[in-house]
Amino acid sequence: MRAARPLALDAAPRGERPPWYLRRRVGERESASTSEAVARPPAAASAGGPDDGARTPPDGELAARRAFDAMVAEHLPALRARAAQLCRAHADADDVVQDALLRAFRGRASLRDRAQARGWLLTIVTNAFIDLVRRQRARRERADVDLEAAPAPAPPAPLPAWHHVSVDDVRAAVALLPDDVRDTYRMFALEGKDYLTIAAAQGVPKATIGTRIHRARARLRAILGARLEPEERR
Amino acid sequence: MTVHGRAADYLDGALAPADEAAFLEHAAGCATCEADLHAEVQLRDREASLIQSARAAEVIPLAARRPRRWLLPAAGVALAAAAAAIVLLLARGRERGSGAPHLALAASRGVVVRLAYAGAARHRPYDVPRGEPTPSEHIPAGTIAALERAGDCHGAGAALVLDGQYARARRAWDGCRATTDLDADRAALAVLDGRPADALALAARALAARADHPVALWNRALALEALGRAAEAADAYDRAAAAGDDWAAEARARAAAARAPGR
User: How many CA atoms lie within 13 A of B120 on its CB side?
Assistant: First the structure.
């Protein structure tokens, strides 16, 4: 079994030590990520052990770490919950979140609006998960090929910049939903009602509510996605 | 069965295990499905924020607003009656010998985990509506506040877990005196929070104190499942079932599911 991280991650005093997602665990290699933002470190750094980030950083970097850490702390529960939803039993959500936060820290300059931090971090979590699935697939396909020597996959296509979509954008888009799903989705998302309450109010089975919400989401994806420009992946 | 275009179903857990694996295999090479996965994750995040604000808006005015002078005295009477009812419920909970205030819970549970806290320990069938953003059931803010006021930090945290407020639950439990039951419940929170490794460590601590702790075994099994260690999970469910309590039937069913081929 892999060594567990400290239990009170969010409460641990950080001092001058780098936050946990910038450290590596014992016996862990740098992940073979496809992201340019996670370029393989020089050999000397790789050999530095699990805590190579603990070397004294310059003041500017320390301040950047602290600011980034505060941002991460705010959104960590949401990131973990989504990572767990993405991973199910197919991958370790903790590893996905750590990989994502490391990428995010290295690519932090590309976050221009702090108000979009959560969506920006979620994009990176999703990318980290998909990259992990790709690596697992490649490992299966080329089980007898030296992975370290294998060529990196082609850079993936740009994706719509979903972090630009705010809660208010979603609220506004609800009005554009087709009649047959709008009221159901409004009760669900804007009034916070659970499926059973909505089903009782609308006189339909609970399963119908699930189907309507599913269709509403598909429509919202189309409405909101159509306004977004593709953006380079992180 | 085609798995193309099933990103939402994947996130809902609506695909069979074999189809889940097939979907991921497909999505790793399909730009459309990858984009759908991104869109669904983001949409559900905003949706969860909307739901959270809607539910908060439902309860905050009652707690924050002072009664206006021209409100009917009946409102005061109703509030007093409600307060008395809460006190009565708290007292009745204690009289039952549970030592814990009473949590009025739904007939089915919205979280897959099991809690040791006495007010939330009884078995209820697991039933999560398809596509709910955060598995939870609604616990009135007043109940949570009553538990906090009563100094029952374990209970307040348990209520917050059931209500889907994981960060607040963690904070409530951070200030609690450590007990074996609390470790078992913190393992539950770690499972829900997507921290299976932490859940395993917490469950192990509880099991070191009491090797047959059924709640710790249950949450350990869930953490093992999240880590893809299905065989060990099945064993943990079996050991939880050995307690012979009202959770045993579901534990046996989960053990059988974990052993089912194709996982």
Answer: 33
User: What confidence tens digit (pLDDT) does each residue in B204-213 have?
Assistant: 999 999 999 9
> Chain B residues with CB inside 8 Å of A122's CB?
41-42, 45
Cβ contact B41–A126 (<8 Å): yes
| pTM of structure | 0.54
Is B192 in contact with A81 (Cβ distance < 8 A)?
A: yes
Integer Cα distance of B203 and B185 in angstroms: 9
* Nearest of B132, B115, B147, B139 to residue B222 by alpha carbon: B115
> What's the gap in Å between the CA of A228 and the closest CA on chain B?
11
What is the pLDDT, as a whole number, of residue B27?
Answer: 93
The yes-or-no verdict on residue A131 having pLDDT over 60 is yes
Give CA angle at B14 (B125, A128), nearest 5°. 115
Cβ separation B24–A90 shorter than 8 A = yes
Q: Directed axis angle between helix A167-174 and helix B31-64, to 10°?
A: 90
Q: CA of A121 to nearest chain B CA: how many angstroms apart?
A: 10
pLDDT of B249-258, one tens digit each?
A: 888 888 888 8
Chain A residues with CB under 8 Å of B37 CB are: 86, 126, 130
- Lowest-confidence segment of A28-32, A132-136, B26-30, B80-84 by average pLDDT: A28-32
pLDDT score, position B42: 95
CB–CB of B110/B137 below 8 Å?
Answer: yes
Which residue out of A72, A76, A85, A116 would a mutagenesis test of the B interface target, given it has the greatest number of B Cβ atoms within 10 Å? A85
* Burial grade of A52 (CB within 10 A; 0-12, 13-18, 19 or more): middle
